[in-house]
Automatic annotation (TrEMBL):
NCBIfam families: recf. One of its GO terms (molecular function) is ATP binding. Residues 3-343 form the RecF/RecN/SMC N-terminal domain. The keyword Manganese does not apply. It comes from Balneicella halophila. The RecF protein is involved in DNA metabolism; it is required for DNA replication and normal SOS inducibility. RecF binds preferentially to single-stranded, linear DNA. It also seems to bind ATP. ATP binds at G30, K31, N32, G33, E34, G35, K36, T37. Belongs to the RecF family. One of its GO terms (biological process) is double-strand break repair. One of its GO terms (cellular component) is cytoplasm. Keywords: ATP-binding, Cytoplasm, DNA damage, DNA repair, DNA replication, DNA-binding, Nucleotide-binding, SOS response. This is DNA replication and repair protein RecF. It is found in: Cytoplasm.
Length: 365
């Protein structure tokens, strides 16, 4: 899958740009705060109908402007896809594929697979359990619409159950809700388990390459449902739930434990190890989505080399330079990393180099 060109109007600090991209490597170099991440975020927006950073669309419109617009052409499995998005302050956004409005934005998710690695993603490694659940859910939801729907249903039922526990805790009603939640919880649990089992060996291979086999890594899926069926768990914990006035068991308490050399990385890992872990996870996500969707995702690498030693930087450059990764968009403040990457690619590989300055994106002279 290839993003061929993009037109941007008033997206954050980018006033107006019309850019054509290389099928392979697109590099954006600029100082801090110039607009490199904003450009990658515009590309992210076109795949997910939202920014990676701000849930409020108004924040994505350039200050003092009323509207923003993103328009792009993609080559997807031999077809050209025209995607258009417009947002006006205080009104609904429009999102179109080939001039047709989507009824629901969720219909668009999965059409243009994309994996982004950005500094803020380190929260997957060091943040709370919720961050890691979000990480799994966002990947599975990209290819499994039933999963996404069941997740929404589960959360609605969970809210109802918690409300009941708080205000009128009748045991028969609680049991009815638990029964409705049980099938959904089992489905989500099985899908998460399957996902972790599939992604772990791919992740380990990437981590070993990045760290030159320096430290063993593994991922553990910890779920209360490892110990038993949802109905049994809720029955067993009913007294506790009545005291706490919320549901203390279920897939909403699941966690992924990221292990490095036998210990949780979030407690003991160095900054470089955490960064390496994140990059290996995201590259594994890339392989996973590629296999499931049959499309090669676009890879966005935002300032990924910070905190890594020269050996790890080189290993990552070697890895992502492999043809396997297809079209890449990479930002850096340091042209040295980009030059090293260009050296790694064969001479015939087409690449485009851009300079980003105060929201303006120009060809690098
Ligand atoms: N809605 C908006 N309107 C105008 N400017 C905005 C808007 N939102 C963010 N900005 C500006 O965008 C700039 C940040 O751009 P961006 O995050 O893309 O930087 P960057 O080039 O990736 O920098 P770094 O290397 O530090 O990550 C800031 O100057 C910020 O004020």
């Amino acid at each position: 899958m290839i993003l061929q060109n993009i037109s941007i109007l008033n997206y954050k600090n980018i006033a107006e740009e019309n850019l054509k991209f290389s099928n392979r490597l697109n590099c954006f170099i600029g100082k801090n705060g110039e607009g490199k991440t904003n450009l990658l975020d515009a590309i992210f927006y076109l795949s997910f109908c939202k920014s990676n950073y701000s849930s409020s669309d108004a924040n994505n419109i350039k200050h003092d402007e009323e509207t923003m617009m993103l328009k792009a052409e993609y080559e997807v499995q031999g077809n050209t896809e025209h995607i258009h998005c417009g947002v006006k302050r205080q009104s609904k956004k429009t999102f179109k594929r080939n001039n047709k409005d989507y009824k629901r934005f969720s219909e668009h998710i999965g059409l243009l697979p994309l994996v982004m690695i950005a500094p803020a993603d380190i929260s997957i490694i060091i943040g709370g359990n919720e961050e890691r659940r979000k990480f799994i859910d966002s990947i599975i939801s990209q290819y499994d619409k039933v999963y996404l729907q069941k997740l929404v249903n589960y959360n609605n039922l969970l809210q109802q159950r918690n409300k009941l526990l708080k205000h009128q805790p009748q045991e028969d009603l609680l049991l009815v809700l638990s029964e409705q939640m049980a099938g959904i919880a089992n489905y989500i649990y099985e899908k998460r388990l399957e996902f972790v089992e599939k992604i772990t060996p791919i992740f380990q291979e990437y981590y070993n390459k990045i760290s030159a086999n320096k430290e063993p890594v593994s991922i553990e899926y910890s779920s209360q449902m490892n110990a038993g069926d949802f109905i049994e768990l809720t029955k067993h914990n009913l007294t506790k739930d009545l005291v706490l006035k919320h549901t203390s068991v279920g897939i909403h308490r699941d966690n992924l434990e990221f292990i490095l050399s036998g210990y949780p990385i979030r407690k003991e890992g160095s900054q470089g190890q955490k960064k390496s872990y994140l990059i290996a996870l995201k590259l594994a996500q890339f392989d996973f989505i590629k296999e499931i969707s049959g499309k090669r995702p676009i890879l966005l690498l935002d300032d990924i080399f910070d905190k890594l030693d020269t050996q790890r930087v080189q290993q990552i450059i070697n890895l992502v330079s492999e043809i396997h990764f297809g079209q890449i968009f990479i930002t850096d403040t340091d042209k040295g990393h980009i030059d090293a990457m260009l050296e790694e690619l064969d001479l015939d590989t087409e690449s485009s180099l851009f300079k980003v300055e105060n929201g303006k994106i120009t060809s690098y002279a």
